[in-house]
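Memo to structure team: turn this sequence into C-alpha cells by end of day. - J.P.
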Amino acid sequence: MTSLPHSRRVGLMAGALLLSAALAPQLAAQNLFVSSTNTKSVIEYDGETGAFERKFARGGGLIEPEGLEFGPDGDLYVASRSDEILRYDGEKGTFKGVFASGHGLFDPAGIAFGPDGDLFVASGLTDDGQGNNILRFDGATGAFVAELDPNNSAGLDDPEALAFGPDGLLYVSDTPEVGNGPVLRYDPATNDFHSTFIPAAASIPDPTGMVFSPDGQFLFLSSAATSEVRKYNGATGAPLGVFVAPGGCGLNEAEGMVFLNGNLLVASELSHEVIEFNGTTGACIGPFVTEGSGNLSEPTFMTLGPSDSDNDAFRFRKVR
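Reply from structure team:
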C-alpha cells in the first residue's frame, strides 16, 4: 500500500470543504458547459433556459473533447483526444496551455478534481493496449503524482467517468467491450483500489455517465449502449431500478449527466441535444439544449460553471 506524505494527507482533510461544496445544493447563477465532440469545442448555455450563450473553449490542439471541469483556480480543464489535459481561462475561455500529458495518459475520458485539489484522469484503453489506468496530477502544476492501483488489482477494463462520492472515495465507471461495466472505488489517501461499489451483474452496459444526486443519497448511471439511466443507493450501491427507460424522451446514446436546478440533464450524443428529466421521478421534461443549438454536435461530458463574469471557483462540480 502506497502512503502519501503527511502534508498531502492534511491537504485531503482540509480539502473536505471542496467536496462538501461539490455535494451541496447548487446555486442559481450557474451555466452549463458541454463538450461538443465534432466541433472540437466546449459550448456554454444559460443555466436557467438552456439558450446558447457562446462557444466557450476551443483551439490549443483540442480534438474530440471529453471530460471537463473547472479547477480550484477557476480555470476550465478539458480532456482532449490528443492525449492531453488542456487548460482554458475560466472567464474568457481562451487557451492557456497544456496542463498535463504523458506518464501513460492515453485517450483521456472523465476527469475530476479531488478533495485536496489534485486532478484525477481516466486514461482509456487504446486498441494497442495502452492506457487503461487512473492517473493523478498535481492540481496546481500539472506534475505527475501517481498511477492509482498500478498493478490493476481492481480489474479495470477501459475507465470512463469519474466522481468523488460523499465518502471522499473516487468512483470510476468501467466500460469493458463486452458485458456490463462495474463501478469501482479508489482511495485518494493511498492511491489504492478500495472496493467494487456496483458489481457488473447489477450494472449496465457501457456506463458512460455517472453522477451523484445533489444530496449524495443516490448514484445514477447512464448507458451509451442502451440509452437509459439507472438509479442506485448512494451509500450501498444497491440497484433501485430504471430511472429513465431506454430511449425515453428521445434519448439516443446517453452520455454525461449533471444535476441542475434539481433536475437531471443527460447529454444525448446522437440526437445532438441535452435532455432534461425530473430529478425525483425521472419523468421526461424535454430538451434543455435543443438539437444542434450553438452548433452542438455529439455532446459527451458536461459540467457546471460560473455564469458570465461571476467566476467563483467554488460553485461548480460535475461528473459525467
